[in-house]
Amino acid sequence: MSSELLTLWSNQPALSLAIWAAMIIFMMYLGRKPSHQLLRSSGRGIYRLMRLSARTLALWQEALAERNRSIILASGKDATERAIEREFERIKDIVARDLAHYPSLHRQISDVVGKIETDYHASAETPPAPPSWLDAVEAVGAIPKSADPAVAKIMDNIHDTIVAAHDETLSAYRKSSQERHRILGKLQPLWRNMVSQLGEVNTKFEGIGDRARIIDEKMQEYQKIREGEESVLQALTLSSLTQFFIGGVVLVIAVMGGLINFQLIAMPMSEMVGGNSYIGGMRTSDIAALVIILVEIAMGLFLLESLRITHLFPIIGSMDDKMRRKMMLITLTILTILATVEASLAYMRDLLALDREALTQSLAGNTVVEANFRWIPSVGQMVMGFILPFALAFVAIPLESFVHAARTVLGLVAQGVLQLLSVCSRLLGTLGMYSCRVLTHLYDLVIMVPLSIETWVAQGRIKFNSREALPSYRYAYSGNDNQGNHSVSDDLRGGLSADVVEPELPMEETSTDSGRKTTARKSTTKTTTRKTTPRKSRTKKEDNDDAIIESNA
Amino acid sequence: MPLLKAMHKIRLVTFIAVTLWVTGCGEQGPQSRSVYMLMDTSGTYTQEIYKAQHILNYLLATLSSGDSIAVARIDSGSFSEKDIIAKATFDERPSMANQQKRAFKQELDAFVDQLKKGSRHTDITGGLLQAAEFLNETGADKKMVLIFSDLEEDLDSGHVRNFPMTLSGIEVVALNVTKLRSDNIDPREYLKRLENWQTRVSNGGGYWRVMNDLDRLERLIADY
Fold first, then answer.
1. Which positions fall inside the VWFA domain (chain B) (predicted)?
2. Between residues 97 and 156 of chain B, which touch chain A (CB distance below 8 Å)?
């Protein structure tokens, strides 16, 4: 077919090809204008469409960013509220544990203080009262000593009596002082006891003070979250990412544990539900084993939820304590029963494996040898079967972290994807538009021969016209139009947005039917620079060209 | 509004049910298998019976719960239930299936031990017909007849076996087809014998295969 087309015009392919090329170029020259319009409108269309889609994607991305922001802040707020609540719980515990005994402590301290006060009063020093006969003694003492020996003797007796009374009084005073010191000595352990009790109170109050400081910090953080500070937002986002990866790693470990558990109980399950029944391509025994494991995980979730460790099911968390405790007991019981079932299944698996091995040996004609220490793997399997369900129960904790963090991470990923799509859309739009422009130029490149001929002809005609008919018109080539896809022939035909020097008509205002004022040109000649749209400019130029042609004619 | 919610729930449940049904129908579990082994006990071929025992042991180790197995001898008139030495359909419980396998092996061992003298004639066609009947009764998804024989049929007088057999969906595998003395003189006889059996099996709707190398028994079941 192609060879026939190649030799359609001549037997010589080269000549025929040249004719084909000439025909195609001619056809392209004739269809140049609509082709350019098609390319131009296609380019603009692609550009606008892509810009529109980019804008839409950007709007979606903004909405998603806002949603992510609110989710992150809400989760941060929730976590902080929970932390504050926990601190208050701790304070409540401290108060209940330590300060509940404060009244008795206060009573003890009061007793001690009372005792100290009594002892203090008891130890107060009472000065000995001056004897009542002191004046008489002074009067007797004023009597001269050497006057009478009898008097002197009396005086001596009196002196001795006074000295004896003084000694007696001094002795009594010393005794009472000793008693006071004894009482004061007894006060020492009371003081020490009181100091230690007060120190204890101080320690307890310091603990509460520390908790109060932590609550203050949390409250400040909470306030920042409420205000939506950027630094807090970034910190929460990073925290979510970390939680997501840590939770993911732990979940992978849990999945592996689940697989091991599955391997332990899948084979013996066929003894219970049969090894030859299938549900949708899967063995019923495998499904049963899987269901047991999933039920164990569910029980673990409920158990941790009842313990208020996780908060995946708000309805469980909001139950009253009695009901929650009941639920905790039920789930723990079910979990224990399932763990026991698993342990027995694991033992049965070991027995089945032994039986199968023995059968294989006998079919192969070998004698079955009983292995030593065969009980060790049996016990190991049983222990694993019992422990793994409880280990799997704790998967609820990383699961909760993962689920909460996944919302943020997925939101961020979706945000990034939308942003990327928006950028790609913009790039594609620009690429489409410039591709169409390049195609326009390529089109002109293909038909450059007829275009050049047209240019020469048009130039010659304009020169002739400008010389002969309209000397006042001058054309100045202005370069490119707004569309950036002009051609020389277009420009010469009037497609230029050129500075045109033309006779200026006097402007006179006339009113139209609609009352709008329009301008009319007056006959005075004036040089003006018109800036009009390319289409309008081209139309006027074409009108001018028509006028020139008519005047020539 | 409640009606709308109920409708929404019904639609959801229907969608889940249909999805489960479609996914369930899309992939079925492994198909049940049924194997019938014919052992030639005529003439000098009895000397090869230990090989047949080895094959059966391999099959017992390979088949699992829900599969069926039967072993029968080829003698002068093989179209009879009396020629079935042992048969079993393995229980769904692995422990029971193991016990059945042990019992099957014991029966087979007892038969091999008490086999002293081979039959005078060889009715392979009768045995094949009996095998087809047994296999079709098991209702297994995959059916296989193993013929442990030299495929040289020698019918007793009066026995009619030259009619087409119905073996649709049954794979017939000839094992250990030994060459006779006459085959050594003219190998075309051996080839012609095999071709004849292949034609008969194929015309009956079955699939024909020959496996003489018993060291590659794993192919027997792997291809099955």
1. 34-224
2. 97-98, 101-102, 105
